[in-house]
Write a structure and sequence with these properties.
mainly alpha, single chain, globular, UraD-like
Length: 171
């Protein structure tokens, strides 16, 4: 993958690095803090290299930090979206999929699915929505709510990594 558009990660101070990359994983700045504290080298100056390190930090963190990471994500087309309280990244991602333009019926379907999903899994439904539309997302939502808890946990973490890669690519 190509290098970053502006300064490379190894050119940045710790504070600037965290300011730039802290939102790559939703409300989970600890991941980029750990990446910095572990040490950056030239391989981190590519999107693929930095993503690989960030992904490894999450994968090696264990269940409790991963669950906290999943719980840091907002519901799709949820209350935070309606009230305008999403992060800039989430707002753009949900808007790109048209989730800010749901019909009343679609909005109700999202609300119902969000409730059912969180009751079953204990964290919000997470999907890298960039490049998808509302119909695809609702279909995926309906499929995933039927998975078992362990399988869905893995799928959700993999979607978080996909979102992070897309966010890095946007930087």
């Amino acid at each position: 993958m190509p290098p970053f558009k502006t300064q490379t990660p190894t050119d940045l101070s710790r504070g600037h690095f965290i300011d730039i990359f802290g939102g790559v994983y939703e409300h989970s700045q600890w991941i980029v803090e750990q990446a910095w504290d572990t040490g950056l080298d030239p391989r981190h100056n590519s999107i693929e290299g930095l993503h690989s390190t960030l992904k490894a930090i999450v994968d090696e963190a264990g269940y409790a930090p991963q669950l906290a990471l999943l719980r840091a994500h907002p519901d799709l087309a949820g209350k935070l979206a309606v009230s305008g309280e999403l992060t800039n990244e989430s707002t753009g991602e949900q808007a790109s999929a048209g989730l800010d333009q749901c019909s009343e019926q679609e909005f109700k379907a999202f609300q119902s699915n969000n409730t059912k999903y969180k009751e079953k899994f204990g964290f919000p439904y997470i999907l890298a929505v960039k490049g998808r539309n509302r119909v695809e997302i609702l279909k995926n939502f309906s499929h995933r709510v039927d998975l078992d808890v362990a399988d869905e946990f893995e799928v959700a973490v993999s979607q978080v990594h996909q979102i992070a890669l897309l966010r890095l690519s946007d930087l």
